[in-house]
Amino acid sequence: MRVILERSNLLKSLNHVHRVVERRNTIPILSNVLLSATGESLEMKATDLDLEVTEATAASIEQAGATTVPAHLLYDIVRKLPDGSEVMLKLDENGNAMTVISGRSSFRLQCLPQADFPELTAGSFTHSFSIDSSALKGLIEKTQFAISTEETRYYLNGIYFHTHEDGGRLTLRSVATDGHRLARAEVEAPSGSEGMPGIIIPRKTVSELQKLVDTPDVSVRVELSDTKIRFTIGTVVLTSKLIDGTFPDYQRVIPTGNDKKLVIDRQSFAQAVDRVSTISSERGRAVKLSIGDGLVTLTVNNPDSGSATEEVVADYSADPIEIGFNAKYLLDVAAQLSGSEACFLLADAGSPTLIHDTSDEHALYVLMPMRV
Q: Looking at the whole model, is its pTM more than 0.85?
């Protein structure tokens, strides 16, 4: 194998694939990236056995071939090479080492045979559709923060994607919850998604996908079955296993009878929460909201260090109410809202509260209160 290519092209592709590779691996081959040179392109592939990313980049192939080299090491080498330089990748005749040459720099990396590299067999996909990258990005970004990190309830360790029909209108929904808060977003269902199974995309896959859908107005091809999903974004193909579990009936926790409506400036509210929560020893401490006529008073009490209060003007005319929330959760939701105002629908101090984005009717958040 003998390949010459632009450093910038090589770095961009390696950046996409090397992130999948875990820093510590008990199986040596999983620390490597598979390089396959054929035709006029160099294809790179990396996997952790649950997730696989491949990308092809244009290259001058002087001799076709394939091998595997340490992914993070190759990425670090290419990253430190000067801008605009050319890189040659040359495999030794015995296939045990690959030389990376650029200008006056030369690196020799140990190889493992291509035959040892695992293949994430995709099987057949039952549904496929195309979705705009900005729509997919919105579905991920509005819900990702609520993914649970608690390993015992593994079925909450991802985003639940499914189609939902309401009044003859079919939407594609993303939902995430950790039991304390819930986030839901939706877009018009793309053609081909009808009848798709409800699937749970794992946290790591969501995180990688989020980095790949940064380019606006790109069509993303989605193929899925009960156990696997594949995204094709330009020259990048991401294939992942799905979480094998049943997502809970989230509709039951979305309150419908909350009649106390509070409309408040999103930025002023978030800054006030951030300021008063400084007094609490941990970010998870409760902040108490005393909501009255046209005013919200935020209070934090910490027996070890003191207390803090701040008032924020708001639009509220229902009965006064006192309710406590985790300060971090309030800030997380506020960060997702795109409108200038946040709309809270409350019931009482012990019931879930509904939060709407005033500029996006397709996003919805539920927060469980805390005792204060």
A: yes
